Amino acid sequence: MKTEFASIRWRERDVSIEYIRIAPERTHAPHIVFLHEGLGSVAMWKDFPQQFCDAGGYRGLVFSRPAYGQSTPRDEDERWDVDFMHRQAHEVLPAFFHAIDLHEKPWLFGHSDGGSIALLYAARFPHAVAGIVVLAPHLFVEDVTVANIEEARKAYETTDLPQRLGKYHDSADSAFWGWNRIWLHPPFRQWNIEAELDAIQCPVLAMQGIDDEYGTLEQIRGIARRVPQTQLVEIRDCGHSPHRDQPENVIVAALNFIEQNRSLQP
């Protein structure tokens, strides 16, 4: 797969977005857009998007948000605010889709922060999405989430975590501190997107590990209470990254969901 770059204008500067296309020759197949976690990137997904698209005969699009992977890093003095995921969903994603001429309705496949961004995009642009699959998304901030993000900060400062993250990001500091500082910023404890989910009209599959160290099952159960067309999958022996802990279960559930809902769409 060839790495490509798209240029968008965001936060009053030009930003380069790293992305790869999977099987673009499958022109009539569903188009799956993968949205990575809070410390993720194109490389951090490893081969899961390829496996998933090959299993379903789909096309795929995998990209790194600004500050991650090979996309433009944060400026040293750039601090994200409480609305950072809203800005990704409402500003970056539409600009990126426009830059690469993606005008069809994609299926969004988001993990963790990427899952929250997928939900926010589907709520703001309800007619622009065929459906969404979210793994361990965040709807609100829980004590367990903050506690483990605090532990991640300590690990970043005292272990080889920067070197390990450096395998997946041109600037590990850009990726880590952008994510870590806002999640530990006291006003962020009030962040909550539950009410916004009422606007979602597309089908939703929400999956989460029962042993998720970054959130309780109330995160996905909250989606089902707000969005009646939601299917829930709670996965045993699984932590915060279902696609790494239980990839076969995730692939089977997501493929069944997409195929069932494709047959219902015009």
TrEMBL record:
Residues 32-251 form the AB hydrolase-1 domain. GO terms for molecular function: hydrolase activity. Keywords: Hydrolase. It holds the Pfam family Abhydrolase_6. The keyword Hydrolase applies. InterPro entries: AB_hydrolase_1 (IPR000073), AB_hydrolase_fold (IPR029058), AB_hydrolase_sf (IPR050266). The keyword Nucleotidyltransferase does not apply. This is Alpha/beta hydrolase.
